[in-house]
Design brief:
The complex is a heterodimer. By secondary structure, chain A is α+β, with helices and mostly antiparallel strands. Chain A has helices at residues 8-57, 59-63, 67-75, 148-200, 214-310, 317-348, 358-372, 392-409, 467-477, and strands at residues 83-90, 95-99, 116-120, 123-131, 137-146, 354-357, 379-382, 387-390, 417-425, 428-435, 481-486, 492-497. In chain A, strands 2-1-5-4-3 form a five-stranded antiparallel sheet. In chain A, strands 7-9-10-12-11 form a five-stranded mixed sheet, covered by helices on one side. In chain A, strands 6-8 form a two-stranded antiparallel ribbon. Chain B is globular and about 35 Å long.
Chain lengths: 498, 170
């Protein structure tokens, strides 16, 4: 198992034991190093003391060449099993006495080395000068000791150290087993709670708080979080239920409304079809009536004319006047029929779309009006470069009607003025025809575009009441819209889009 | 035994008996303390005297040359008669006068002079140190009582390597 997957209890215990083990190890190593060093020094010091004593005692032996005495002196070293060799050299550097008596070879240097004690080849050796106080040197003492004493002591303290370390580690382990609980217990409790929450989806459980340290704070925060989640969960469930109810209600209502709309649609479609049929019928009827009405009308007018020309003498003034009225009325009826036929044609005509120069068209119409009635002085203000896409023939009918209207209704103005130009309407491009003529009451704005709807009497301004109806039809057939603004004696403005 | 034989050979080979004795005479100065009145001042020479026949030749002079005991140099003086001895610290009594030492010792009685000789039974007869030649080796016999009487102190180390003679049987 990888270290990071260890349970926290084991991690804590391992950590504590590892730390105390390391501390113990370092301490022991430092102590052992110090002990080794001080043991060697103590051993060297002890050997040097011993050397000095023997040297002091052996002065007379050397001075008076008594080697038996010297050997006896050296043999006292038997008490120390670590002394492996001892040699006395005389003044000339020759071996004078040795211990043990049988010793030979490497352990007996042929001649004394420099004075002093040192470690050499695993041995502690020393050359001690032999001299009586204040006098010349008599010889040299050589001592060699193995390091058994050092190693024995070292081994003993090593064993003791290991035993102490084992006991200390065991104690550290046991103690850490107990102490790690103070840290791991709250964490485990938290983990257990978290598991319960996530597996059972039960937000009502709470972790128990074991202390007021950071883990206690964590536990509190965790519990608070759980509480909040529980509250939010409840609120969520409630609003979800509510939402479901709303959704169901909405669905039901949508269904009802859809059903209703479907029905209404259906009836509208039926109505539209009926209307279309009726309209077509009406158009056909109007056309045929208008057409059929023209023949008898022409007969009435023709014979009235014949009567006036051929039999004028036989008629009195009143008779002639009556015939004139008959003729005027029949001619007016003819115009009316022509207009109605025009309206019917507009409805039936096919639209051919092309680019149309509206400005040029308006100028032509204005010039035509001026030619027809040269005695009137009307100021035309036609914006240049106005273009549109549509049926040129029909659009000419529109402009002709609107401009002719303006021309007509400004007749009583001292300074008549008619304007054609572009305008901004509802965020889109529109055209307008404005005059400063008789105007109209906005109350009747709806009626302007109806067939035979007239706001002025024929005596005031002549007209059939078909022109604006025709205009609206053409605009509608182009997919546009037409409306008007005005006030009595304040002029009128007609707006249209295409 | 083998070591002893080797030593004998070595001693015989490298130094004559006279030479060894000369060194011993010189070495005595290190193991004997004289009373304060015997030392006139701290730089006074340590006098090694030879009375009668001199067996050392040039060896004794060679041995002490350049040596000191503390600040005191060594000096060798030769006397023909005991009356000639003025100041002396170590006196070797040679032949023939040494053959009858009692007379000389009587003359030197109570003077702080270390008396040395190879005369027979010298220690028993009131001398302080006798050289004994034993199988080619020089041994010492010491009479501490005599030294004591002359107010000389002989180091116990020296006594240890010597044969102690007590003529009074004390």
């Amino acid at each position: 198992m990888a270290l990071r997957d260890w349970p926290i209890k084991r991690k804590l215990t391992a950590m504590l034991v590892l730390i105390s083990g390391l501390v113990l190890l370092l301490t022991s190593a430092a102590f052992a190093g110090y002990q080794y060093w001080s043991l060697r020094r103590a051993t060297r010091d002890a050997l040097s003391v011993r050397g000095r004593i023997i040297a002091a005692n052996s002065t007379a032996s050397l001075a008076f060449a008594n080697d038996a005495d010297a050997r006896e002196l050296l043999s006292a070293l038997r008490a120390d099993p670590h002394i492996v060799a001892a040699v006395l050299y005389d003044k000339g550097g020759h071996v004078f006495a040795r211990y043990p008596a049988s010793i030979v070879g490497d352990l007996v240097p042929a001649a004394p080395g420099p004075d002093g004690y040192r470690f050499e080849r695993g041995l502690l050796i020393g050359f001690q000068p032999v001299e009586e106080t204040g006098s010349q040197r008599l010889g040299t003492l050589y001592l060699a000791s193995d390091l058994g004493a050092v190693y024995d002591t070292f081994r003993l303290s090593g064993v003791i150290g290991l035993a102490v370390m084992a006991v200390a580690l065991l104690a550290a382990y046991l103690l850490s087993r107990v102490l790690q609980g103070t840290i791991s217990q709250p964490i485990l409790a938290l983990a257990e709670t978290a598991r319960a929450v996530s597996t059972r989806q039960d937000y009502s459980v709470r972790a128990s708080r074991l202390g007021s340290d950071e883990l206690g704070v964590l536990t509190d925060a965790f519990n608070q979080m759980l509480g909040r989640i529980e509250d939010q969960n409840r609120a969520l469930t409630q609003s979800q239920d509510e939402l479901q109810r709303y959704a169901a209600d909405l669905e039901r209502r949508v269904e009802e409304r859809t059903h209703e709309l479907k029905e209404r649609n259906e009836s509208l479609r039926r109505n539209a079809a009926e209307l279309l049929a009726a309209n077509t019928e009406l158009d056909a009827f109007a056309y045929s009536v208008s057409h059929d009405l023209r023949a008898p009308l022409r007969t009435i007018d023709g014979f009235s004319q014949v009567l006036l020309e051929d039999n004028a003498a036989q008629l009195d003034e009143a008779g002639r006047e009556s015939l004139h009225r008959v003729r005027a009325a029949s001619q007016r009826m003819g115009t009316l029929i022509d207009d109605l036929l025009k309206l019917a044609r507009v409805t039936r005509a096919e639209i051919r779309t092309e680019d149309v120069d509206l400005s040029g068209m308006a100028r032509d119409i204005a010039a035509e009006l001026q030619r027809a009635t040269p005695e009137r002085q009307v100021e035309f203000a036609i914006a240049p470069g106005l273009k549109a896409r549509g049926d040129a023939r029909l659009l000419r009918v529109v402009l002709d009607n609107l401009l002719r209207n303006s021309w007509k209704y400004t007749a009583k103005q001292p300074a008549p003025r008619v304007e054609f130009g572009p305008v901004e309407a509802n965020g889109g491009e529109a055209f307008m025809v404005r005059d400063n003529g008789a105007g109209f009451d906005m109350k009747y704005a709806d009626k302007l575009f109806g067939v035979f709807q007239r706001l002025h009497s024929a005596a005031e301004f002549e007209g059939t009441g078909v022109g604006l109806a025709t205009v609206r039809r053409i605009i509608n057939r182009h997919g546009g819209r037409i409306w008007a603004e005005g006030a009595v004696d304040q002029g009128a403005t007609f707006y249209f889009t295409l | 035994m083998l070591v002893c034989a080797a030593r004998l050979g070595a001693q015989a080979g490298r130094a004559s008996e006279a030479q060894v004795k000369a060194v011993f005479l010189f070495n005595f100065a290190q193991f004997v303390d004289w009373p304060a009145e015997a030392v006139p001042d701290s730089h006074a020479p340590v006098v090694i005297g030879v009375l009668g026949g001199d067996p050392f030749g040039a060896f004794l002079d060679a041995t002490v040359r350049g040596e000191h005991r503390g600040a005191r140099p060594f000096e060798v003086q030769r006397f023909q008669r005991v009356e000639d001895i003025t100041r002396c610290d170590i006196l070797f009594i040679g032949r023939p006068v040494g053959d009858r030492p009692e007379e000389i010792l009587a003359r030197l009685k109570n003077r702080p002079i270390l008396t040395v000789s190879d005369a027979d039974r010298f220690a028993e007869r009131g001398g302080m140190i006798r050289f004994v030649t034993d199988r080619g080796r020089i041994r010492l016999q010491i009479n501490p009582e005599a030294a004591e009487a002359a107010r000389l102190t002989i180091s116990s180390k020296l006594l240890r390597v010597a044969e102690v003679i007590t003529p009074t049987g004390r």
